[in-house]
Amino acid sequence: MRRWATLAVCCTVMLQSITALAAAPIRIGALFSVTGPASFLGEPEKNTLEMLVKQANAKGGINGHKLELVVYDTQGDVTKAVQLANKLVKNDKVMAIIGPSTTGETMAVIPVAEREKIPLISCAAGIKITEPVKKWVFKTPANDHLAAEKILNHAAGMKYRAIALLTVSDSFGSSGREQLKALAGRKGFTIVADEVYGPKDSDMTPQLTKIRAAKPDAIICWGTNPGPAIITRNVKQLGIKVPLYMSHGVASKKYIELAGTDAAEGVMLPAGKLAVYDRLSRKDPQYTLLKEYDQAYKNAFGTEASTFGGYAYDGFLLLTGAIGKGPATPDQLREGIEKTKKRVSVSGIFSMSPADHNGLDLNAFEMVRITKGDWELIK
């Protein structure tokens, strides 16, 4: 009897240990440019992720796992991003990392994720982040070639043929310029001007003066604020009347605020559906999630949700969708993310595979026009 009692106690202890292990908290790391020039990206990303983790834990966690979030501000600095990525892995022992906010930071952090075998879900758009595929790296913004194609498809429909490019000389701008030039050639466009500006430049009238002399049918600007806002004002100041396209890198009301309502009038760009969810069909599979996100963000932070915060939302859903009921490991999470199918989220409907670590298509974007300080769907 004593032996059976001892065995029963041992089994109980083992069961309790297994249960405790299965329900162990999952520590998530995050790297966002909360301050610095890319704060318009990082601040809503941080706010969104903290809000979602709080909501999840209030409901008991994900499949019984409470979430622990460790967020660091990279300030948009590549060196700092690498240092903090190493800190998340070695000191904080995170299971996965969401972020960084920018393409340059992400490219610098990728070797850390690959070496340490930690899933990295970037919130940056550069196509080189996931092409070619890296085993441990995913990203949530649609690839920039999709945004470029969306712009050029619209321009083709408007019978524009001669286009001018004005791109920022950072990783995001260089990638966009590369995609635009490749696609323009295949789609029959002629690039009559190809100008570049620096991330800290405060006046682009010299480049725009050259562009005006080239007489393009349309101008495509590729960058993130404040540069595109300055360019928009410069275009207005120079009296340039040709259509102006912007990239998805300015798909927030902050761009309109910085450029000014008058100067931004008529500017066109590809934007995620969040910016125009109230104009979508109520049958759109993303509509309910987008509405709930926007309302929750407004309640928590007093302002509308942005496309950029949505990138962190996507990262959260991809990661938590990979959490099973048993013990979580970085490898198990990586495999779960890669097997994601038809996951409805802010930036689109994600379907990952071993050959595709972005999982979005052209349907991730809507073409919009700025009209009277707000977004208007282009039909």
UniProtKB/TrEMBL annotation:
<comment type="similarity">
    <text>Belongs to the leucine-binding protein family.</text>
</comment>
<keyword id="KW-0813">Transport</keyword>
<keyword id="KW-0029">Amino-acid transport</keyword>
<dbReference type="InterPro" id="IPR000709">
    <property type="entry name" value="Leu_Ile_Val-bd"/>
</dbReference>
<dbReference type="Pfam" id="PF13458">
    <property type="entry name" value="Peripla_BP_6"/>
</dbReference>
<feature type="signal peptide">
    <location>
        <begin position="1"/>
        <end position="22"/>
    </location>
</feature>
<dbReference type="InterPro" id="IPR028081">
    <property type="entry name" value="Leu-bd"/>
</dbReference>
<dbReference type="InterPro" id="IPR028082">
    <property type="entry name" value="Peripla_BP_I"/>
</dbReference>
<feature type="domain" description="Leucine-binding protein">
    <location>
        <begin position="25"/>
        <end position="359"/>
    </location>
</feature>
<dbReference type="InterPro" id="IPR051010">
    <property type="entry name" value="BCAA_transport"/>
</dbReference>
<keyword id="KW-0732">Signal</keyword>
<protein>
    <submittedName>
        <fullName>Branched-chain amino acid ABC transporter substrate-binding protein</fullName>
    </submittedName>
</protein>
